[in-house]
Design goal:
Shape: globular
Structural class: alpha/beta
Helix content: 25-40%
Number of helices: 5
Length: 198
Amino acid sequence: MKKCIAVTQRVEHIAAIGEWRDALSQEWAAFAEACGFLPLLLPNRAETVRDLMEAVRPDGILLTGGNDLASYGGDAPERDRVERFLIRYAIDRGVPLLGVCRGMQMLLDYFGAPLHRVEGHIRVEHPLSNGDTVNSFHGWGAAECPAPLLEMARSADGVLEAVTHGDYPWIYGIMWHPERCHPPRERDIQWIKEVFQL
């Protein structure tokens, strides 16, 4: 039986009709299929997410991209609340968690690493200190990697691109978007299988 991974969604404001929507690129469903897990899409409502996590007990948590953090000018504080709860849940339960792009930014902020605006990281590819070359779609990043976070990779201009946690080694963050590679990169698939023990 495939493992179930809880997946967060971005918040979109449809101003013309005054509606706020949760949304997720269809690329994530295709990537989940390539990796061999079932995605459980989470709404941006903390109370509902708490109940869902208790009812379903997913095997992992994936914090996806989109939306700036509210503390850095973003307009989706409800998403921040959900993802902060999920990080705490992962810590308390020992559940594997991967933050992608905004998801890694949330991890950095949660563990005290300040974010700053970065240039040249939107719609480009660039090499990393670990020998990989990745896509990039982010306007925020961090240069500092305060303990107990551990640096896994950095871009040539000094921006953190991958981290893990020294005390909670089941928590990871990456700044690139594996779901936006067509076809998915085998390197990403195999690594994510390791993270979630698929």
